[in-house]
Amino acid sequence: MSTRTAATALDEVDPLAKLRNHRGPSPGVIHLDGNSTSPAIDTAIRPRRFIEHHWARPPRGHNPFPELRGAVRDLAALLGASASELALTDSSSMNLFRALVAGAELRPGRSVLVVGRDCFPIDRYLARSAADFTGSELVLLDDLAELDEVLDERTAVVALAHVDDRSGAVRDAAGITAEIHRAGALALWDLSNSAGALHVDLGTWEADFAIGCGDKYLGGGAGAPAYHFVAERHHATERTAGTSPAGRRTSSPTLSVAGFRESLSRLGAVTSASLQNKTSSLVELFLTRLEPYRDGTAPEVLEPPKGAPRGAQVVLRHHHARYLVQGLFAHGVIVDFVEPDLLRFGFSPAWLSYVDVWEAVEALGTVLHELPAGFDPENGRS
Amino acid sequence: MSTRTAATALDEVDPLAKLRNHRGPSPGVIHLDGNSTSPAIDTAIRPRRFIEHHWARPPRGHNPFPELRGAVRDLAALLGASASELALTDSSSMNLFRALVAGAELRPGRSVLVVGRDCFPIDRYLARSAADFTGSELVLLDDLAELDEVLDERTAVVALAHVDDRSGAVRDAAGITAEIHRAGALALWDLSNSAGALHVDLGTWEADFAIGCGDKYLGGGAGAPAYHFVAERHHATERTAGTSPAGRRTSSPTLSVAGFRESLSRLGAVTSASLQNKTSSLVELFLTRLEPYRDGTAPEVLEPPKGAPRGAQVVLRHHHARYLVQGLFAHGVIVDFVEPDLLRFGFSPAWLSYVDVWEAVEALGTVLHELPAGFDPENGRS
Question: Does the keyword Hydrolase apply (chains A, B) (predicted)?
Fold first, then answer.
């Protein structure tokens, strides 16, 4: 596993290798920045085709619904949902607001909304907004271990990220959903950091609501449309903020949907279990390859808490993290920098090869080597 | 005015002719279907450029905000707003919900939301939703003449379309806003059928809120992003459903924003007054050219009620409207059919030439001529 040849051999037998069959606009760049965009597919293909063959062609040639329906169908398959339970619309923040309000309405005698603190800051404002408009109390959950304490007969909804964005730990969504249901509350899952990389099965989990963004592992790129799941069993009684009875859809941004659909049509051809398998293998290769660099001066690998399974990301701590990120960039490897001293690597099973991961660690080794002993970032590179 | 040469002459001196300098994907087709898309600009240009030059290029090359800021700046100029008052986000239905809720919150002692019935059906659901979540009563206004009766000390917000989509009549936005303000209520304008074709000046009107879609006269095409205006004076106290304090934006669909920006960057170079002037001239040419066909069998021209000014659309009534729409399509002219017997023509000053309008009436004359006397649509074309 420690040679480039071994990585090449893994690529040769990779059943998902065909997903990478694209000509992206940035060949030679390895995208491990899960935060904003997956390795770029040539996302221009489908928007262009849509404009030329649907939009501009009369009559009623500009009907955007085939694009939308196709995208919803592929995404539903990947999430273990049915197409009628899923809407591609608005932003993930707006969809969080919507789902929290719907949850509060479905549990009228309960007045507490519990939301994991590991969501984006803007989502916390939306959660506050949902609490205000439903006359609920908002409880921000710092740690999953506190769930037991806050979960009681006053809890209407619990909103949690499937993957803790700080530690990369995967939560036991089915088990936690069951616990939430035992307390009589509803479960809302944010799939932004898992869909497209990990096994997701909203039906089996018995999730009530789910939301997520279309970028990151789903490959929809910057500003991809967001999605919104409501379990079929709630459709009759749900009365969500800002929805119509006809499928909870408002309108969707067609060009962005068309771009998103390009990657969804590839992901829709495989199972989320096979994506999860490859994610694990990529992460394992990364960690194995990193072993030789684990000494006193090399980055520390942050471990998920209490043996929770690791998702599709690895976070490294290094006191010169900012400079390492810049150095990696110079070598064509893009990772996220998290203030003050973290490097976050995201592993998208659909768009990355084993050789990509091998090369990324090779680049990290080079950059670590280039960093002179006694390097002081305040005073330049020497 | 009744010859093709005269129309050509008008095009030659048209100060807005430069806006049409585009290579759309459907040359030779005249789009008068204001409902869903303007004549197609080659909207692929900017999404493609965005993908290749911003999205795919590290580092942080996928930052979508320059696209968004550019689009907001150009749109604000066209609406008489400042960029800080405008957000390009979510769908117009969602933005209606948001603005109604914000309005209700800004007028806490008042419990009635008044909404013009001439909005899309889905918007009525969203209005109902906003009323439910704010504990307000929803009053749907059938006719502007009823405004006097419903406007009282219980009214929190009045939401109206700037242009009545049924009759094409333009409403006196400044005057009506003043009347609403005299009653202590807030004014919310839907600009979907006017922005890009008529003079709009939210600042001078003293509008409190405005919403609109990016397609129709703004040229953003099918599924273009929606927009949302909140007057500066309400920013300190506004507490809108589903917003963050940092500029009321959630995320925006970047590819669709990039497509929309392509047309906004052209529209941003002219004034809405000059757009309105050309719209009037196009409509005048259309009506003048139509005179010879105004006999017993020809379409009836629907007039706006009570001498209200006509906007950018003309509606014709004909008992074979459906067949006329199909016939026009065969001649490369796209108009909207409205059940059961109406043809709706929309005149986009930015993308249409005078010759286009001349040709459209020529095609209508041909189609009327082709329709045999005694034509029975139930039994085919003879």
Answer: yes
pLDDT of residue B22: 58
For residue A381, tell me if it sits in a domain: no
* Residue A377 counted as domain residue: no
Are A37 and A51 contained in the same domain? no
CATH code at position A324: 3.90.1150.10
**Measured between CA atoms, how close is A71 to chain B, in angstroms?**
15
Burial of B60: CB neighbours in 10 Å, binned 0-12, 13-18, 19+: exposed
Nearest to B251 among A101, A223, A241 (CB): A223
CA B244 to chain centre: 27
Domains in chain B: how many in total? 2
* Three-state SS at B219: coil
Q: Is the residue at A376 inside a domain?
A: no
Residues A89 and A134 in one domain: yes
**CA–CA distances in Å: residue B272 to residues A230, B80, B201, B217, B347:** 42, 9, 8, 11, 14
Which chain A residues touch B134 with a CB distance below 8 Å? 133
Confidence of residue B287 (pLDDT cuts 50, 70, 90): very high
Closest-CA residue in chain B for A38? B56
B250 to A62: CB separation less than 8 angstroms, yes or no? no
The answer to whether B154 and B110 have CB atoms below 8 angstroms apart is: yes
Task: Note whether A112 and A219 are same-domain residues.
Answer: yes
Is there a single domain that holds both residue B57 and residue B203?
Answer: yes
- Interface contact flag, A244 B125, Cβ < 8 Å: yes
C-alpha–C-alpha distance, residues A120 and B250, integer Å: 11
Distance of alpha carbon B95 from alpha carbon B82, whole angstroms: 18
**Chain B neighbors of A58, CB-CB under 8 A:** 26, 29, 33, 329, 334
Residue B376: count other Cβ atoms within 10 Å of its Cβ: 10
Per-residue model confidence as pLDDT tens digits over A46-82: 776 766 666 655 545 456 667 788 899 999 999 999 9
Chain A residues whose CB is inside 8 A of the B255 CB are 43, 47, 221, 223, 253, 255-256, 258-259
Sheet holding A86-88, edge to edge: A86-88, A227-230, A209-212, A186-190, A155-161, A112-116, A137-141
A-to-B residue pairs, Cβ atoms closer than 8 angstroms: 214
Of B242, B267, B292, the domain-final residue: B267
Determine the residue of chain A that is closest to B256 in CA distance: A255
Interchain contact, A253 vs B250, CB within 8 Å:
no
B274, pLDDT greater than 80: yes
Q: Do B241 and A241 touch (CB under 8 A)?
A: yes
Residues A134 and A275 in one domain: no
Q: Which residues from chain A sit within 8 angstroms of residue B98, using beta carbons?
A: 242
Distance from CA of A129 to the nearest CA of B (A): 6
State pLDDT tens for residues A113-124.
999 987 766 678
How far apart are alpha carbons B282 and A106 in whole angstroms? 53
Which residues does B110 contact at the CB level (< 8 Å), separation at least 6? B104, B153, B154, B155, B156, B184, B185
What's the domain range around B133?
45-267
Contacts of A244 in chain B (CB under 8 A): 93, 121-122, 125-126
pLDDT band at A378; cut points 50, 70, 90: low
> Which of B240, B267, B294 marks a domain boundary?
B267
Claim to verify: residue B113 and residue B211 sit in the same structural domain: yes
